[in-house]
Amino acid sequence: MALTFANRQRFAGNFREEILDITFDNSYAAGGESFAPGNTSLSTFYKVEIEPVAGYSFQYDYTNSKIKVFANAPPIVIDEPHTAVGNAVTLDYPAAWIFNVATAGQNEALTAMADTLADNECQLTSAIAAGERTGITTYGSTDAILVSYVTQAWAELFDCLVQEESVALTTGGVNLANTLMCFGYCYGDTTGLLLPVDNADTTAAGEVGIKPNYATAALDIHATQNGETGTVTYLKKPASTSWIASRLIPDEDPTASGTYIHTFNLPLLLWGITGCLLVNGGTTQKIIDYNTAPGAGEARTNWGYRGLVADQNVPSAGHAWATASNVTVTAGCYLYGHPWEIPGLVPLEVKNGTDLSRLSSVKVMVIGR
User: Fold this and answer.
1) What is the pLDDT of residues 15-47, one digit of tens each?
2) Are the beta carbons of 119 and 109 closer than 8 angstroms?
Protein backbone atom coordinates (compact mmCIF):
# COMPACT_ATOMS: atom_id res chain seq x y z
CA MET A 1 0.00 0.00 0.00
CA ALA A 2 1.13 3.55 -0.69
CA LEU A 3 1.66 6.11 2.06
CA THR A 4 -1.01 8.69 2.79
CA PHE A 5 -0.26 12.23 3.89
CA ALA A 6 -2.12 14.70 6.09
CA ASN A 7 -1.61 17.79 8.26
CA ARG A 8 0.98 19.39 6.00
CA GLN A 9 2.63 22.46 7.52
CA ARG A 10 5.08 24.76 5.75
CA PHE A 11 7.33 26.98 7.80
CA ALA A 12 8.41 30.25 6.24
CA GLY A 13 9.14 33.52 7.98
CA ASN A 14 8.52 34.52 11.59
CA PHE A 15 9.22 31.01 12.87
CA ARG A 16 12.02 30.23 15.28
CA GLU A 17 13.84 27.09 16.28
CA GLU A 18 15.31 26.32 19.68
CA ILE A 19 17.45 23.36 20.73
CA LEU A 20 17.86 22.58 24.41
CA ASP A 21 18.88 19.83 26.83
CA ILE A 22 16.49 18.43 29.42
CA THR A 23 17.11 16.22 32.45
CA PHE A 24 14.43 14.03 34.01
CA ASP A 25 13.95 13.55 37.76
CA ASN A 26 13.72 10.44 39.95
CA SER A 27 9.92 10.07 39.92
CA TYR A 28 8.24 10.10 36.55
CA ALA A 29 4.61 11.26 36.58
CA ALA A 30 2.33 8.97 34.55
CA GLY A 31 0.84 10.95 31.71
CA GLY A 32 4.04 12.88 31.10
CA GLU A 33 6.32 15.58 32.47
CA SER A 34 5.29 19.18 31.89
CA PHE A 35 7.06 20.95 29.03
CA ALA A 36 5.35 24.09 27.79
CA PRO A 37 6.41 27.03 25.59
CA GLY A 38 7.04 28.98 28.79
CA ASN A 39 10.00 26.66 29.45
CA THR A 40 11.66 28.08 26.32
CA SER A 41 12.01 31.42 24.59
CA LEU A 42 8.98 30.58 22.40
CA SER A 43 5.32 31.34 23.00
CA THR A 44 3.84 28.57 20.81
CA PHE A 45 5.03 25.09 19.79
CA TYR A 46 4.36 23.78 16.29
CA LYS A 47 6.85 20.93 16.37
CA VAL A 48 8.65 19.17 19.23
CA GLU A 49 11.26 16.52 18.44
CA ILE A 50 13.09 14.56 21.14
CA GLU A 51 16.00 12.23 20.46
CA PRO A 52 15.65 8.67 21.81
CA VAL A 53 18.29 7.71 24.36
CA ALA A 54 19.31 4.65 26.40
CA GLY A 55 16.39 2.55 25.15
CA TYR A 56 13.80 5.22 25.89
CA SER A 57 11.70 7.03 23.31
CA PHE A 58 9.62 10.15 23.77
CA GLN A 59 6.30 11.53 22.58
CA TYR A 60 5.08 15.08 22.98
CA ASP A 61 1.48 15.53 24.08
CA TYR A 62 0.52 18.79 22.34
CA THR A 63 -2.88 18.92 24.05
CA ASN A 64 -1.54 18.76 27.61
CA SER A 65 1.96 20.18 26.97
CA LYS A 66 3.77 17.13 28.37
CA ILE A 67 6.60 14.82 27.38
CA LYS A 68 5.67 11.14 27.64
CA VAL A 69 8.42 8.54 28.06
CA PHE A 70 8.21 5.05 26.53
CA ALA A 71 10.28 1.89 26.97
CA ASN A 72 10.04 -1.86 26.55
CA ALA A 73 7.43 -3.34 28.91
CA PRO A 74 6.49 -6.86 30.02
CA PRO A 75 3.77 -8.41 27.85
CA ILE A 76 2.38 -10.31 30.85
CA VAL A 77 2.34 -9.25 34.50
CA ILE A 78 1.67 -11.78 37.28
CA ASP A 79 0.19 -10.93 40.70
CA GLU A 80 0.90 -7.20 40.49
CA PRO A 81 0.18 -5.93 44.03
CA HIS A 82 -2.05 -2.93 44.74
CA THR A 83 -3.92 -1.58 47.74
CA ALA A 84 -7.22 0.11 47.03
CA VAL A 85 -7.64 3.75 47.93
CA GLY A 86 -11.31 4.65 48.06
CA ASN A 87 -12.31 1.32 46.42
CA ALA A 88 -10.00 1.83 43.42
CA VAL A 89 -6.58 0.88 42.13
CA THR A 90 -4.70 1.83 38.98
CA LEU A 91 -2.52 -0.78 37.27
CA ASP A 92 1.09 -0.03 36.40
CA TYR A 93 0.45 -0.44 32.66
CA PRO A 94 -2.46 -0.16 30.24
CA ALA A 95 -4.11 -3.59 30.22
CA ALA A 96 -5.01 -5.58 27.13
CA TRP A 97 -6.67 -8.41 29.08
CA ILE A 98 -7.12 -9.32 32.76
CA PHE A 99 -6.97 -13.05 33.48
CA ASN A 100 -6.97 -13.16 37.27
CA VAL A 101 -7.56 -10.97 40.30
CA ALA A 102 -6.98 -12.24 43.83
CA THR A 103 -6.35 -11.22 47.39
CA ALA A 104 -4.06 -13.38 49.51
CA GLY A 105 -5.73 -16.78 49.28
CA GLN A 106 -9.02 -15.56 47.79
CA ASN A 107 -10.18 -15.07 44.21
CA GLU A 108 -11.73 -11.72 43.33
CA ALA A 109 -14.25 -12.38 40.54
CA LEU A 110 -14.16 -9.87 37.68
CA THR A 111 -17.67 -8.72 36.80
CA ALA A 112 -19.41 -6.26 34.49
CA MET A 113 -19.07 -2.52 35.01
CA ALA A 114 -22.84 -2.23 35.54
CA ASP A 115 -22.84 -4.76 38.38
CA THR A 116 -23.25 -3.74 42.02
CA LEU A 117 -20.22 -5.27 43.67
CA ALA A 118 -20.44 -7.88 46.41
CA ASP A 119 -17.64 -9.17 48.59
CA ASN A 120 -14.85 -10.86 46.59
CA GLU A 121 -15.85 -9.13 43.36
CA CYS A 122 -14.20 -6.37 41.35
CA GLN A 123 -14.81 -4.55 38.08
CA LEU A 124 -13.14 -2.21 35.63
CA THR A 125 -13.50 1.40 36.71
CA SER A 126 -14.00 2.26 33.04
CA ALA A 127 -13.53 0.42 29.77
CA ILE A 128 -9.99 -0.56 28.83
CA ALA A 129 -8.64 2.12 26.48
CA ALA A 130 -5.55 2.34 24.28
CA GLY A 131 -2.60 3.90 26.07
CA GLU A 132 -4.46 4.52 29.33
CA ARG A 133 -3.52 2.88 32.62
CA THR A 134 -6.34 0.56 33.64
CA GLY A 135 -8.40 1.15 36.77
CA ILE A 136 -10.10 -1.52 38.87
CA THR A 137 -12.85 -0.85 41.41
CA THR A 138 -12.90 -3.15 44.44
CA TYR A 139 -15.61 -4.02 46.93
CA GLY A 140 -13.55 -3.05 49.97
CA SER A 141 -12.23 0.50 50.21
CA THR A 142 -8.76 -0.73 51.24
CA ASP A 143 -8.59 -4.16 49.57
CA ALA A 144 -5.08 -5.42 48.84
CA ILE A 145 -5.34 -7.20 45.48
CA LEU A 146 -3.04 -9.04 43.12
CA VAL A 147 -3.75 -8.54 39.42
CA SER A 148 -2.50 -10.79 36.61
CA TYR A 149 -2.94 -9.29 33.17
CA VAL A 150 -1.65 -8.87 29.63
CA THR A 151 -0.32 -5.40 28.92
CA GLN A 152 -0.87 -3.46 25.72
CA ALA A 153 2.74 -4.18 24.82
CA TRP A 154 1.23 -7.33 23.30
CA ALA A 155 -0.55 -5.31 20.62
CA GLU A 156 -1.81 -8.29 18.62
CA LEU A 157 -3.67 -9.64 21.63
CA PHE A 158 -5.07 -6.20 22.50
CA ASP A 159 -6.63 -6.17 19.03
CA CYS A 160 -8.60 -9.29 20.06
CA LEU A 161 -10.34 -7.63 23.02
CA VAL A 162 -14.15 -7.48 22.90
CA GLN A 163 -15.58 -5.53 25.83
CA GLU A 164 -19.08 -6.03 27.17
CA GLU A 165 -20.79 -7.33 24.04
CA SER A 166 -24.57 -7.34 24.54
CA VAL A 167 -26.24 -10.68 23.81
CA ALA A 168 -29.65 -12.23 24.33
CA LEU A 169 -29.31 -15.12 26.79
CA THR A 170 -31.16 -18.01 25.19
CA THR A 171 -31.37 -21.66 26.12
CA GLY A 172 -29.94 -23.91 23.44
CA GLY A 173 -26.89 -21.77 22.82
CA VAL A 174 -25.82 -18.11 22.93
CA ASN A 175 -24.11 -16.83 19.79
CA LEU A 176 -21.27 -14.30 19.88
CA ALA A 177 -20.28 -11.86 17.15
CA ASN A 178 -16.81 -13.47 16.97
CA THR A 179 -15.17 -16.81 17.63
CA LEU A 180 -14.50 -17.14 21.37
CA MET A 181 -10.82 -17.59 22.22
CA CYS A 182 -10.54 -16.58 25.89
CA PHE A 183 -13.46 -15.95 28.26
CA GLY A 184 -13.61 -13.03 30.68
CA TYR A 185 -17.10 -12.90 32.17
CA CYS A 186 -20.82 -13.14 31.40
CA TYR A 187 -23.25 -10.99 33.36
CA GLY A 188 -27.02 -11.36 33.25
CA ASP A 189 -28.98 -8.17 33.79
CA THR A 190 -31.29 -9.92 36.28
CA THR A 191 -29.16 -12.72 37.75
CA GLY A 192 -25.82 -10.92 37.87
CA LEU A 193 -22.43 -12.56 37.32
CA LEU A 194 -22.73 -16.11 35.91
CA LEU A 195 -20.28 -18.78 37.02
CA PRO A 196 -18.37 -20.35 34.09
CA VAL A 197 -18.60 -24.14 33.84
CA ASP A 198 -17.48 -26.87 31.47
CA ASN A 199 -19.71 -26.78 28.39
CA ALA A 200 -19.98 -30.59 28.57
CA ASP A 201 -21.81 -30.27 31.88
CA THR A 202 -25.51 -29.59 32.30
CA THR A 203 -25.62 -25.87 33.05
CA ALA A 204 -27.43 -25.02 36.28
CA ALA A 205 -29.15 -21.76 37.25
CA GLY A 206 -26.60 -18.98 37.63
CA GLU A 207 -24.02 -20.74 35.44
CA VAL A 208 -22.73 -20.28 31.90
CA GLY A 209 -21.21 -23.07 29.84
CA ILE A 210 -18.08 -22.08 27.90
CA LYS A 211 -17.18 -23.43 24.46
CA PRO A 212 -13.92 -21.90 23.19
CA ASN A 213 -13.17 -21.90 19.45
CA TYR A 214 -16.85 -21.36 18.62
CA ALA A 215 -18.96 -18.30 17.80
CA THR A 216 -22.28 -20.09 17.25
CA ALA A 217 -23.52 -21.52 20.57
CA ALA A 218 -20.28 -20.40 22.22
CA LEU A 219 -22.13 -20.04 25.54
CA ASP A 220 -24.82 -22.15 27.17
CA ILE A 221 -27.20 -20.95 29.89
CA HIS A 222 -29.91 -22.47 32.08
CA ALA A 223 -33.58 -21.84 31.34
CA THR A 224 -33.71 -19.65 34.46
CA GLN A 225 -31.63 -17.02 32.62
CA ASN A 226 -33.59 -17.32 29.38
CA GLY A 227 -34.63 -13.88 28.12
CA GLU A 228 -32.09 -11.90 30.13
CA THR A 229 -29.73 -9.50 28.41
CA GLY A 230 -26.17 -10.70 28.82
CA THR A 231 -22.95 -8.71 28.89
CA VAL A 232 -19.93 -10.71 27.71
CA THR A 233 -16.26 -9.73 27.70
CA TYR A 234 -13.90 -12.03 25.81
CA LEU A 235 -10.96 -12.31 23.44
CA LYS A 236 -11.94 -13.09 19.87
CA LYS A 237 -9.87 -15.55 17.88
CA PRO A 238 -7.83 -13.73 15.23
CA ALA A 239 -7.18 -14.89 11.68
CA SER A 240 -5.86 -18.42 11.39
CA THR A 241 -2.59 -17.06 9.98
CA SER A 242 -1.81 -15.10 13.16
CA TRP A 243 0.76 -16.21 15.72
CA ILE A 244 -1.86 -16.16 18.47
CA ALA A 245 -4.25 -18.47 16.60
CA SER A 246 -1.42 -20.95 16.08
CA ARG A 247 -0.91 -21.13 19.88
CA LEU A 248 -4.50 -21.71 20.95
CA ILE A 249 -5.37 -24.94 22.78
CA PRO A 250 -9.17 -24.65 23.10
CA ASP A 251 -10.04 -27.84 24.98
CA GLU A 252 -7.47 -30.12 26.62
CA ASP A 253 -8.00 -32.53 29.48
CA PRO A 254 -4.97 -32.62 31.81
CA THR A 255 -3.34 -35.70 33.28
CA ALA A 256 -4.08 -36.15 36.99
CA SER A 257 -1.22 -37.29 39.21
CA GLY A 258 0.19 -37.08 42.71
CA THR A 259 -1.76 -35.17 45.32
CA TYR A 260 -4.36 -33.34 43.26
CA ILE A 261 -2.00 -32.21 40.50
CA HIS A 262 -3.38 -31.64 36.98
CA THR A 263 -0.75 -31.39 34.23
CA PHE A 264 -1.34 -30.07 30.72
CA ASN A 265 0.81 -30.93 27.73
CA LEU A 266 2.36 -27.57 26.89
CA PRO A 267 3.90 -24.57 28.68
CA LEU A 268 1.35 -21.99 29.77
CA LEU A 269 1.50 -18.53 28.21
CA LEU A 270 -2.05 -17.29 28.87
CA TRP A 271 -4.88 -19.08 30.67
CA GLY A 272 -8.14 -18.85 28.75
CA ILE A 273 -10.87 -18.67 31.45
CA THR A 274 -10.47 -15.61 33.66
CA GLY A 275 -10.29 -16.51 37.32
CA CYS A 276 -11.53 -20.10 36.94
CA LEU A 277 -10.44 -23.69 36.38
CA LEU A 278 -13.30 -25.79 34.99
CA VAL A 279 -14.26 -29.20 36.38
CA ASN A 280 -16.24 -31.90 34.61
CA GLY A 281 -19.22 -32.81 36.74
CA GLY A 282 -18.03 -30.83 39.75
CA THR A 283 -17.47 -27.38 41.20
CA THR A 284 -15.58 -24.75 39.22
CA GLN A 285 -12.30 -24.03 40.98
CA LYS A 286 -11.48 -20.36 41.65
CA ILE A 287 -7.90 -19.28 40.88
CA ILE A 288 -5.97 -17.75 43.77
CA ASP A 289 -2.49 -16.25 44.06
CA TYR A 290 0.47 -18.60 43.75
CA ASN A 291 1.81 -17.95 47.25
CA THR A 292 -1.19 -19.49 49.05
CA ALA A 293 -2.07 -23.18 49.24
CA PRO A 294 -5.48 -23.79 47.66
CA GLY A 295 -8.44 -24.52 49.91
CA ALA A 296 -11.72 -26.17 48.99
CA GLY A 297 -12.90 -24.99 45.57
CA GLU A 298 -9.60 -23.24 44.79
CA ALA A 299 -6.68 -23.79 42.40
CA ARG A 300 -3.29 -22.27 41.74
CA THR A 301 -0.50 -22.57 39.19
CA ASN A 302 3.04 -21.33 38.87
CA TRP A 303 2.36 -19.17 35.81
CA GLY A 304 4.75 -20.00 32.96
CA TYR A 305 6.67 -22.65 34.92
CA ARG A 306 7.73 -25.65 32.84
CA GLY A 307 8.00 -28.26 35.56
CA LEU A 308 10.76 -29.87 37.60
CA VAL A 309 14.15 -30.62 36.10
CA ALA A 310 15.14 -34.26 36.45
CA ASP A 311 18.82 -35.24 36.31
CA GLN A 312 20.22 -35.00 32.77
CA ASN A 313 16.80 -34.01 31.37
CA VAL A 314 15.28 -30.78 30.10
CA PRO A 315 12.35 -29.29 32.04
CA SER A 316 9.03 -30.98 31.42
CA ALA A 317 7.00 -29.30 28.70
CA GLY A 318 3.66 -28.93 30.44
CA HIS A 319 2.23 -26.76 33.17
CA ALA A 320 0.38 -28.00 36.22
CA TRP A 321 -2.45 -26.84 38.44
CA ALA A 322 -2.88 -27.76 42.10
CA THR A 323 -6.28 -28.18 43.76
CA ALA A 324 -7.25 -29.00 47.33
CA SER A 325 -9.33 -32.03 46.38
CA ASN A 326 -9.28 -34.77 43.77
CA VAL A 327 -11.54 -33.09 41.20
CA THR A 328 -11.69 -33.93 37.49
CA VAL A 329 -10.27 -30.85 35.83
CA THR A 330 -11.19 -30.66 32.17
CA ALA A 331 -11.67 -28.31 29.22
CA GLY A 332 -8.38 -26.52 29.67
CA CYS A 333 -8.30 -23.49 27.35
CA TYR A 334 -4.98 -21.67 27.01
CA LEU A 335 -2.34 -20.17 24.74
CA TYR A 336 0.94 -22.02 24.98
CA GLY A 337 4.49 -20.76 24.77
CA HIS A 338 6.72 -18.29 26.57
CA PRO A 339 6.68 -14.49 26.85
CA TRP A 340 9.96 -14.11 24.96
CA GLU A 341 8.40 -15.79 21.92
CA ILE A 342 5.66 -13.18 21.48
CA PRO A 343 6.23 -11.24 18.23
CA GLY A 344 5.64 -7.56 17.59
CA LEU A 345 5.75 -6.17 21.13
CA VAL A 346 5.45 -2.39 21.32
CA PRO A 347 6.87 0.07 23.91
CA LEU A 348 4.58 1.42 26.62
CA GLU A 349 4.70 4.53 28.77
CA VAL A 350 7.01 3.89 31.73
CA LYS A 351 5.46 3.22 35.11
CA ASN A 352 4.40 6.03 37.41
CA GLY A 353 7.23 6.91 39.78
CA THR A 354 10.01 5.48 37.59
CA ASP A 355 13.45 6.92 38.36
CA LEU A 356 14.65 8.56 35.13
CA SER A 357 17.31 10.76 36.69
CA ARG A 358 20.00 9.08 34.60
CA LEU A 359 18.39 10.59 31.51
CA SER A 360 20.30 13.85 31.38
CA SER A 361 21.11 16.19 28.51
CA VAL A 362 18.33 14.73 26.36
CA LYS A 363 18.27 16.78 23.16
CA VAL A 364 14.99 18.52 22.31
CA MET A 365 14.29 20.62 19.22
CA VAL A 366 11.24 22.86 19.10
CA ILE A 367 9.87 24.93 16.24
CA GLY A 368 7.39 27.69 16.99
CA ARG A 369 6.90 31.40 17.42
Assistant:
1) 899 999 999 999 999 999 999 999 999 999 999
2) no
Residues 135 and 214 in one domain: no
Pairing of strands 207-210, 195-198: parallel
Range of the domain at 286: 250-340
187 in the same domain as 135: no
Q: What is the 3-state secondary structure (H, E, C) of 24-83?
A: CCCCCCCCCEECCHHHCCCCCEEEEEECCECCEEEEEECCCCEEEEEECCCCEEEEEEEE
Q: Is the dihedral of CA 304, 269, 292, 147 positive or negative?
A: positive
- Count: domains in the chain: 4
Domain C-terminal end among 236, 270, 292: 236
149 shares its domain with 107: yes
Mean per-residue pLDDT, 91-109: 97
User: Cβ distance 334 to 268 under 8 Å?
Assistant: yes
Rounded to whole angstroms, how far apart are CA atoms 101 and 118? 15
244 occurs within a structural domain: no
- 3-class DSSP state for residue 238? coil
Considering only 32-36, 78-82, 169-173, 198-202, which range has the smallest mean pLDDT? 198-202
Q: Are 53 and 28 within one domain? A: yes
